[in-house]
Amino acid sequence: MRRTALVVGATGIGGRHVAQELLNNDWTVYGLARHPQIDIGGLRPVQADLLDPQDLAEALVDVTPTHVFITTWMRCDTEAENIRVNSAMVRNLLDALAPKQSVRHVALVTGLKHYLGPFESYASGGMLPETPLRESQPRLPIENFYYAQEDEVFRAAERDRFTWTIHRPHTIIGMAVGNAMNLGATLAVYASICKETGRPFQFPGSQAQWEGLSDVTDARILAKQLVWAADTDAARNEAFNIVNGDVFRWRWLWREIADWFGVKAAGFAGTIMPLEQILANDRELWRDIAQRHQLVEPDLDRLASPWHTDLDLGRPIEVSANMARSRKLGFCGYQATDDSFFDLFAALRHVRLIP
Question: What is the pTM of this model?
Answer without folding.
Answer: 0.95
